[in-house]
Amino acid sequence: MRPIRPTRAARQGRSARRASAPLMSAAGLAAALALTVTACGPTDDGAAGAPPAAATGSAAAAGGSGDDKIQIPDDLKDRLKEHGIDLDKWKNGEWKNWNKDDWLREAEDFVNPIIAGLWNPDRMKEAEKPPKQPVANDISGDAGVTDPVPARLPAKAAKAPYHSAAPESGRLLFDGPEGSMSCSATVVRDPAHPGRSNLVWTAGHCVHAGAKGGWYRNVAFVPSYNDGARAVSKETTREQVAPYGVWWAKRAYTSAQWISQGGPTGGNGAPYDFAVLSVTSEKGAGKSLEETVGSALPVDFDAPAVPKITSMEATGYPAAPPFDGERMYQCEDKPGRLAIKPAQPTMYRIGCSMTGGSSGGGWVARGQDGKPALVSNTSIGPVTAGWLAGPRLGPEAKAIYEKAGSR
């Protein structure tokens, strides 16, 4: 199976269906379970193998221009130099160099200098491209902890303004070798900074290409993207599509399993397909992201077992046909279980018609305290867009979350 990949600028047709991550191949099912990622990422398949358990992360550099210039700490300037990155050249287009030798891959290699104004309405709209390589929806023969395939549920359009319906949700934009792409993401609480969180939760495949690639570039979060659900055109202003600003990833953390196993198709790495970003406003100092949007979801790393969960709601910005990435949608269903490999955690699965671009979007359920909490994120789904699956958040997810909040 494959993670739901980020959507790309050129629309490839309904067959390409990822939520916001690369497609993965399902090597662990009794029969091949072919899925497509719905959000973003290269098209190389990930390599299988026993994943390390350690969480991985990276520090990013923030830099701007003109009045919006953000000071870069000396240690981050040094890191840029170590990677051979000249900030001025980077901002003038050097980031478009995707030579394998220059594509930063390791956990600590993430760099994301702010290029003020780069994500304008036109580039945001171009990021609606779906993935190129859909896979068959073959799930015959699965058994054990995999429940029957859920019934397909049509995604429902979220009520505008989105900030009233789901203030924590937004769209994640980034660039990869194949162009601009998009996923979905969620503002989550930061226990280290109560009420002032700058943390965003998404899928691993929305920030890192996995086993045969590295970190994506120009990663930015737009909370309540297109809040009024308007038709986006050349006349649409940046303030209309980004009413709460553009927030650039300062640091990014994903699982060691995703970096070592993840790929554009199949199930490799899918149970560990999650990521946490520490973001900063493109405009520099000011209120935190949580203060700006007025809300942040808690994360539950010990959610009840599937039989005890009566409902989960997934939110995202699907961009592959028949969707266009400009509007927020939601699916609510009682989850079932999906097993990729016997030695890996079982994933959640719900019926949903959302397509590529919805990857990384948060799944909300009642946590252990009975209150709404983020318990998963969209990772993979079939080419027929009938269901979505997301990782169950455990020790590996908690480790990267705590690391992100401590910085």
TrEMBL record:
Segment forming the signal sequence: 1-39
Highest taxon of source: Bacteria
EC id: 3.4.21.-
InterPro entries (UniProt xref): Glutamyl_endopeptidase, Peptidase_S1_PA, Peptidase_S1_PA_chymotrypsin
Stretches with biased composition (Low complexity): 9-21, 40-62
PANTHER family cross-referenced by the UniProt entry: PEPTIDASE S1 DOMAIN-CONTAINING PROTEIN, SERINE PROTEASE
Record's protein name: Trypsin-like serine peptidase
The organism's taxonomic lineage, starting at the top: Bacteria, Bacillati, Actinomycetota, Actinomycetes, Kitasatosporales
